[in-house]
Amino acid sequence: MPGKYSRKPLWRFAGKLSLKVADALAPMAYRDAVRLDPLKSYVETVASAHMLAWLHAAFSHGVEVESYLDAAEGVPSILPDRRSWVSEVTLKPGITFHPSQEVEAKVIERFHELALQDCFIARSIKTKVTVSAP
């Protein structure tokens, strides 16, 4: 129909997985709760990519990690021309190391620096990515 389009996107991945996505511009009250939130998806993509780069840095330095869980948050912002974007993603990782290892805070911070440099997602976006202190 002229002037109409679907606001129910479907993400397909290699024909194996399909995800129903919410309309990112719709107010929360009008979003379908069953559909994936695009902002949360974006934040999780950034957090997951950083985690993998961080784990690689730790592994490369002989550090054994028991668990890495991130409660990352995204900051949606409005530009002067009233367009929205995600201005910042704050990573809030909780990291547990193997009981036989004590890892200093400066080493953990260095792994985050390496991850921010090495992560191709972080290098590909204009969103500021920060890591909050544990």
Automatic annotation (TrEMBL):
InterPro entries to which the protein is assigned, alphabetical: KH_dom-like_a/b, OsmC/Ohrsf
UniProt protein name: OsmC/Ohr family protein
